[in-house]
Amino acid sequence: MPTSFITVQQHILEEQRRFPGSSGEFSSLLSGITMATKMIQDKVRRAGLSDILGEYGETNVQGERQQKLDVFANHALIHFLGLRERVGVLASEENEQPVIVHQGSEDANYAIVFDPLDGSSNIDVNVSVGTTFSILRRPDGVTLHEPDQWVLQPGSKQIAAGYVVYGSSTILVYSVGNGVHGFTLDPSLGAYMLSHPSMKMPKQGPYYSVNEAYRESFPEPYRDYLDRLRSGALGQPYASRYIGSMVADFHRTLLKGGVFLYPPTHENPDGKLRLLYEANPIAFLAEQAGGIAIDGKRRVLDIEPESIHQRTPIIVGSQVELTDFGRLIG
Ligand code: AHM
Ligand code: MG
What we know:
By secondary structure, the protein is an alpha+beta fold. Helix content is 30%, strand content 23%. The strands form 3 sheets. The protein has an 8-stranded mixed β-sheet with strand order 4-3-5-6-7-8-9-10, sandwiched between helices. The protein has a 5-stranded mixed β-sheet with strand order 12-11-13-15-14, with helices on both faces.
């Protein structure tokens, strides 16, 4: 069958066949994500027409002003994922505490963590935004009385992760640990169709991506690294690209190669991006596509999280760029 005729649901059913013991669980979880993100993309596409732009009037747990679309996206994901019987815990950038669903159910064995609308400060100016998600299995012996323990697991324990970019088209990219696959939403069918099978990050790319306005407050190795990228020390000159929406910046890095960084700064000594629902899914996809993701020293996926909204520096991208950074820090 041509690639363009395979829906994400058909694809996940195929993937499940390769997992002994799995019983339709992934397709049910993923269908919650596809439903919610189709609703989110519909709102994003109509943003200038309906009364959905602008601030909601409240501040989230990170101290950031919530946009109306942040709130809508969060509700959509909690609603559609909450309907899935296998889900026990949902944790979101927009909620201080994890949400418990299906209290008392023996079958609720999965936690899903997500950032409903990443980069939402860009929405008013028509710049790409995205949704990130990460799926974890309930650790043995942990009950719904300890919802934090469902999600405080290193990224290496993710059983699936992905994102949706609401860009010039809407693209869903996911992995269940068996490569990375991309699906473009066909607006006339309302279905995500396989458009990017088995995505591989190029070994080296043409771009570096960082908020260079903070350069003077980056630790020295990061400043030296940027100098190396700019000077041609890696065998080629680099161009710079920075959208300010992590999902969109990473999506370009996945397709074209290169490096995306959010280093520690004076203001954010642990970086800005959140480990559980931003860095971990991105790191999982990067590794599955042949790339590398570190926090400056260690593999992002090896970090043992201590709190749900914990931040981490991240440097993620192609083999050549990340190997060079590794040499610089020794
Ligand atoms: P958000 O989750 O509140 O939208 O913030 C995360 C976003 C990322 O998408 C992006 O990489 C980063 O913030 C940009 O931050 P800065 O403006 O400091 O460069
Ligand atoms: Mg975010």
